[in-house]
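Support request, please re-run this one:
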Amino acid sequence: GNRRGSLWTRLRRAAREGAPYVRAGERLETWWRQAGFLPPYEFHAHLLGRDGGRRAFLARMGAEAMEPLDVFLDMARSYEMDHPASLTGSLDFLETTETETLSGGGKGGGRRVETRTTSYVYSISLAIGLCEGEISRIGRVWADRREISLRDHEHRLYRGTPDQLPDPLIEVVEGVSPAFRNLAYIVLEDLPLAEFGNRVPQFNFEIFRQPPANNNVPRFVDQIEAVALIPGSGENVYDVKPVSRLLGEGESVAENAHSPLEETDFLASINHLQASLPKCKSISLIVSWFANDLRAGQCLLKPGVEEQNKQTLPTDWYAGGVDRATAHLVSAANGAPAFGGTPSDQSVVAAIKNLHDRGMAVS
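Re-run finished. Output below.
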């Protein structure tokens, strides 16, 4: 408990003093040098093959070690096939085990029998280079052509700013790491690999960035200070909490959450607005009501609904002093509403509060 210094430092010192540490020190020095330039599969295949690693594993752990070694090499091979040499790299493979033990007595009160099953769970931490220069945000993300949500995975996005700092995980793994300034990249930490066949999937990212300034002329996006939020129709379009429409017994569908970001459409839109128009500080919130006559002198404005028998959770629609049953019904085309209903009063109030919390003026 009172030892000082790393195990590697002590081993190198002991190797200089003679056997039995000389051979161990030489092999580790060789592997250290090879790890700096060999691709992952070639390095590990050489270590487990010609250097006798597989033989040593099996001699110490038994034949049960054969399968995880093969799986590990398959993961290294798949990574090399799917990823060109770039910032995209494996930082840290993690393996966890789950062991289940079943026991029971033999027939006639015989010897107790135990069956132990061990399953291996693989994950990886990696950095993925996105593009040169600063970006505004990431949109959609696909892994092996299937859209995923980054909210489901621990991640850190570096937008490629001139002053971004090094990633703490890369610093821990590498010891010293550059900040990759002016390079946009993302770090995925402890990504589970089971759903991708225990290999690193092929990633595709939707990237948003602003055009650079030209000859000291301000960018158009930096001059926009106010916007009108349209179309302003849809019964729950401004709600900051998910609302579902009941279809039947135990069945429902989202009314206002259609983004893989797992947030309402309003919140996703405002988040994107602020990322794209950083100088925008004022929003005109449009709310649609409906007229019942083309003659201005006889026209009445009323809040309208898309369906009068629709049930929604967790809130019911209410606007302008009327509920769904007594509200104006918008016109239909081919059996479906031709226009979105009036945003509910509750959703409009929630939207205004959210915008105010962001420091934006609302009119």
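Residues 100 and 117 are 5 Å apart (CA to CA). The first helix runs from residue 7 to 17.
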